[in-house]
Design brief:
Layout lengths: L9 E5 L4 H12 L3 E6 L2 H9 L6 E6 L5 H15 L4 E4 L15 H29 L2 E5 L12 H21 L5 E7 L8 H4 L2 H10 L8 H12 L10 E4 L14
Parallel strand pairs: 1-2, 1-4, 2-3, 4-5, 5-6, 6-7
EC number: 1.-.-.-
Pfam families: adh_short_C2
GO molecular function: oxidoreductase activity
Length: 258
């Protein structure tokens, strides 16, 4: 990506306080964009700000994507303050509580759905008028867990599955308006969300046995795909779903048998 790829562009990244969101914000900023990161925790946002590329424009805003009024106000304020909005990256998500349908109560179910699904809906609906004005794009951060199931992640699987098909619906509905909508689907990326799993030796060994590249991904590797989808190089890419999983999705599910 050239250093000036996003010069003059304005980008919002939700869930920008760590992991893929932070890496994505830094990559857009390095490309010349004005980047606004939204997250719930000021201290985490401040840490991302402190690591911003030299000379870049990175702005932090505290907000909760599951609060319709709050996220709508934040998106509108960004567009008004900077005169435009070119890209929305819907990255904010949670996978907790873990568990099966039998394990999870209604409160836990709503916690996942409100962030992972409602948040994408609220932020996208707020952004669309501004994106139409400039021919912008939305990149949804889905998950391999939205393309296939996991044991014990019923709420997260359901939420990310919804994001997958919401991406399809928005690509159909808004492509003619000049707004492209795509998704990336990471798996086993080293982030705060996966940290607990990656500290379990048995899970690590089992996971690496399934990943053809025999390693876990880094947030920057997902960020590079996100920024590509938002760039002029992807000008005819709409409704795409790109796995960032080291080849995990190439398997039919069988163990090593040859």
């Amino acid at each position: 990506m050239a250093e000036d790829t996003f010069t003059g562009k304005v980008v919002i990244v939700t869930g920008g306080g760590s992991g893929i969101g932070a890496a994505t914000a830094h990559r857009f900023a390095a490309g010349g964009a004005t980047v606004v990161i939204i997250g719930r925790t000021q201290a985490k946002l401040d840490k991302v700000m402190s690591g911003a590329p030299t000379g870049s424009t990175l702005i932090a805003r505290v907000g909760d994507v599951s609060d319709e009024e709050e996220i709508t106000g934040l998106v509108d304020a960004v567009a008004q303050e900077h005169g435009r909005l070119d890209t929305l990256v819907n990255n904010a998500a949670t996978c907790e509580p873990l568990g099966t349908v039998s394990d999870i109560d209604a409160t836990g179910w709503r916690r996942v759905m409100s962030t992972d699904v409602d948040g994408v809906f609220f932020a996208s609906r707020a952004a669309l008028p501004h994106l139409r004005a400039v021919g912008g794009s939305i990149v949804n951060v889905g998950s391999a867990s939205g393309l296939g199931g996991d044991w014990g992640l019923a709420a997260y699987n359901a939420a990310k599955g919804a994001v997958t098909n919401l991406t399809n619906a928005m690509a159909l509905d808004h492509g003619a308006e000049g707004v492209r909508v795509n998704a990336v689907h990471p798996s086993m990326i080293s982030t705060d969300m996966t940290a607990g799993f990656l500290q379990n030796d048995a899970i690590v060994a089992a996971a690496l046995n399934r990943v053809p590249m025999q390693r876990f991904g880094e947030p920057a590797e997902a960020a590079s795909v996100i920024t590509f989808l938002a760039s002029p190089a992807a000008s005819y890419v709409n409704g795409a779903h790109i796995r960032v999983d080291g080849g995990l999705g190439a398997s039919n599910g069988n163990p090593h048998i040859a």
